[in-house]
Design a protein that fits this description.
The protein is of the alpha/beta class. The protein is 47% helix and 8% strand. It has 24 helices and 13 strands. The strands form three sheets. Strands 6-7-5-8-9-10-11 form a seven-stranded parallel beta sheet, with helices on both faces. The longest helix has 34 residues. The N and C termini lie far apart (93 Å). The N terminus is likely disordered.
Length: 767
């Protein structure tokens, strides 16, 4: 390391000990603190009952700043040791940086956050430059070394992450580079010791990183980026070289990992796993190269030898080429940015559809009316998006358009008087490797039929009325379906390989039924699985994938609902190639669309209204956010036009996790759920011809779907008659005899009771 001449006044061993303690304990404490705050924020996201925790997460920077300033300010002002005082002062400035960054926690637009960070960072750079009169030293040789090391440092991010949209890359890249410049301006080379300098720089980067990026990416900024301290210390006194290394690495963090996807909702084997792995590898590489650079400079200085400038420059070109090769080969090339869901003010009027007696005519009328209305009202907007080069997807079941997110698109939409509102439509970035298919814990069924089937009397319907759901088509929207499962394969309407009009995967574009997550295979098994696991084993099914790694978005949920109203062939256009005569009769929806997926309370309301007018029965699981009241608040379960189902155990007692009413998210105070069904330890199918017991309202809803299939199979005159079918289900439900929650109307706990398939079919038959 280059050594500057310093005064030796006020230097003491105690100052060194104090510095080492603060430079190590404060960043470590900061990491622990941010993890706890992040976890609390994730709990708020995962549970409707813990929304208050979100405020702790959003305001976490404020107590951090207060505590750190209490510790660092006295060090910056009263420590006389000239080796450490400038470092403490740099820490002080970095900590203050987090105060204006606090406001960014309340901004939902990621592009606006990145732009604000660029502006704030540049203002901070100017202030630091003026106050400290720092000269931006530029050393060609050290900068060449920086360009050589940087792509090696970010290689793990390239391999394990995936870039966002071009706008994401531009704005986040700019934010990262500004971060690097600010950090380099604050670096103080005063200790005359490589290790001590590294500790000081590491703490500085941790403090500065805590106020940068969105929460989630901040965890990476305060764990991986501080490890660059060894490299930066080795490259000092060149500020330009340090800025390059820090800026490129920080940009990579912000570009390749979406902070929203660093979520417990996705589980430990998802993005969080790869982000953690990337950070750990970067730490090791940074430490190794930092020490190597420092040692090589020391050796060349003692040998009085200077490495030709061409050497690091050529090496830099080679490693950058290798980095781009990694992106193209091992990594995930392309753009994976989030999109916007644009809902139009004008929604088609379907009220006259109920007057049409013939089912196919009714379905065709609904489809044509919706499509024509969408084409007419969206025409101008589609043309503008095409001119802008903005990729977009039109929808008709809700008059809406999904479009790539960018500031230009948002600005244009703000000028449109025909736009009702714009909500997020997040897209998951791909993982480095395919997830392993989730299998069940059992190879066979032990109890035939299952306790749940007996509880609702479905087995008595089979034996006494000889009704098993034949003639009814189920529309399954979930994580997918294992189409080869012995309990499900024969009921697939596309059995034999005819997947046109029967299977649609808007996530990955697969051409035949498949399921990695297992959730869809399990729920469909409860509806119609053979071997005693399904309520209506004679029914057929068609499928659509609207969940990928347990998350969706408004557009993809709508993709599947449109497909079930008017199925289309593989690679077909939903607005042109839909065939409503192939529509499903009953839809199972064992999912919800929370705010993290972009939905507001009314996002999909026009869709369920149109489906009801078309005569399609929509069944929805209420969610697993109980036992608190008013935890039914996500589409679709909150809507009056759907039949919402809570979960009970084998004793007929409502499950603690089952969400409760009344509905308050849309201010309706509507009573929900409508009914309850078995949802605890329900045995059903899983991929690879396995079975397992799962619990949740996702397991309860399919029972009701199967019961509707039995009713309509037994009495075809009721097909499409949503009102009468609903009356039968309510009137024949077994009274709930368990303890009810204090949620106003007692029905806000378990609805009108527990579904009774036998009694419902008996009433439908007039017996």
């Amino acid at each position: 390391m280059d050594t500057d001449s310093h005064s030796t006044s006020h230097r003491s061993p105690l100052a060194v000990i104090l510095f080492i303690i603060t430079a190590t304990t404060l960043p470590c404490s900061l990491i622990g603190y941010h993890f706890v705050m992040w976890f609390m924020g994730q709990m708020a996201v995962a549970s409707e009952s813990a929304n208050f925790l979100a405020w702790f997460d959003k305001l976490s920077l404020l107590p951090q700043v207060i505590v750190l300033l209490i510790i660092v300010a006295p060090l910056a002002w009263f420590v006389k040791d000239d080796r450490f005082r400038p470092i403490y002062q740099s820490w002080f400035i970095a900590i203050l940086f987090a105060l204006p960054a606090l406001a960014f926690r309340f901004i939902s637009n990621a592009h606006l956050v990145a732009l604000a960070q660029v502006v704030l960072g540049l203002v901070a750079c100017v202030i630091v430059f003026i106050i400290r009169r720092t000269s931006i030293s530029f050393n060609f040789r050290l900068s060449a070394y920086a360009l050589f090391v940087a792509p090696i440092l970010i290689a793990p991010f390239i391999i394990y992450g995936a870039p966002g949209s071009p706008t994401d890359i531009f704005l986040n890249g700019g934010a990262g580079l500004v971060f690097g410049l600010l950090a380099a301006l604050l670096v103080a080379n005063t200790t005359e010791n490589f290790l001590l300098n590294s500790l000081g720089v590491g703490a500085l980067l941790a403090f500065l990183g805590s106020g940068y990026g969105n929460n989630g990416s901040q965890l990476m900024m305060i764990t991986a980026i501080p490890a660059l301290s060894f490299v930066v210390a080795a490259l000092t006194p060149s500020i330009a070289a340090g800025a390059l290394v820090i800026g490129i690495a920080a940009s990579a963090v912000l570009i390749y990992f979406d902070p929203v996807e660093l979520s417990i909702l996705l589980g430990g084997e998802d993005i969080a796993k790869w982000a953690t792995r990337s950070s750990l590898i970067v730490i090791v590489i940074a430490w190794a190269f930092g020490i190597l650079l420092w040692a090589s400079r020391k050796i060349t200085q003692r040998l009085n030898f200077r490495v030709p400038l061409a050497v690091p420059l050529v090496a830099a070109v080679i490693v950058w080429g290798a980095a781009f090769g990694l992106q193209a080969g091992v990594g995930k090339p392309g753009f994976y940015g989030d999109r916007l869901f644009v809902i139009m003010k004008s929604q088609a009027d379907m009220s006259s559809a109920t007057k049409i007696a013939d089912r196919n005519e009714r379905l065709s009328y609904v489809y044509k009316t919706l499509v024509d209305h969408a084409n007419t009202t969206q025409s101008d907007m589609r043309k503008v998006f095409e001119q802008m080069g903005a990729k977009h997807t039109p929808y008709y079941l809700v008059n809406a358009i999904e479009v790539d997110d960018s500031p230009l698109v948002r600005l244009y939409l703000a000028t449109r008087s025909d736009v009702d509102r714009v909500i997020p439509s997040p897209r998951l970035r791909p993982l480095p490797e395919s997830a392993s298919v989730e299998k069940g814990s059992q190879d066979s069924i032990v109890e035939v039929p299952g306790w749940n089937i007996k509880m609702i009397g479905a087995d008595k319907v089979w034996s006494e009325f000889k009704v098993d759901g034949k003639g009814i088509v189920i529309g399954q929207s979930d994580s997918g379906v294992d189409g080869d499962h012995v309990a499900l394969r024969d009921q697939y309407r596309g059995s034999g390989g005819n997947n046109d009009y029967n299977w649609f995967d808007p996530w990955d574009g697969t051409s035949s039924p498949n399921d990695e997550g297992g959730h869809g295979t399990h729920t469909l098994g409860t509806i119609l699985g053979k071997g005693g696991i399904g309520v209506a084993p004679g029914a057929q099914w068609i499928g659509c994938v609207n969940l990928n790694r347990n998350l969706g978005n408004p557009a993809l949920y709508l993709d599947c609902m449109q497909f079930h109203l008017a199925p289309f062939p593989q690679n077909g256009n939903p607005l042109k190639d839909g065939d409503p005569t192939r529509a499903a009769h009953v839809l199972n929806n064992s999912w919800g669309c929370p705010p993290i997926e972009g939905c507001d309370a009314n996002a999909l309301l026009p869709a369920v209204s149109a489906l009801r007018h078309a005569g399609i029965f929509v069944v929805v699981s209420t969610g697993n956010d109980g036992p608190n009241c008013s935890t039914i608040g996500q589409p679709l379960s909150l809507y009056a036009d759907v039949f919402s189902v809570g979960a009970v155990n084998r004793n007929g007692i409502i499950a603690e996790f089952s969400s409760r009413g009344p509905v308050t998210s849309d201010k309706s105070n509507r009573i929900k759920p409508d009914i309850s069904a078995p949802g605890v330890d329900v045995i059903s199918s899983m991929p690879k011809n396995t079975y397992t017991a799962n619990s949740g309202t996702s397991m309860a809803g399919p029972h009701l779907v199967g019961v509707v299939a039995l009713i309509w199979s037994a009495q075809p005159k009721l097909i499409g008659d949503i009102d009468r079918t609903t009356q039968i289900l309510i009137q024949t439900a077994k009274p709930y005899k368990g303890v009810v929650s204090n949620c106003g109307d007692p029905k806000n706990t378990a609805g009108y009771g527990i579904v009774d398939a036998y009694a419902a079919v008996k009433m439908a038959l007039g017996k």
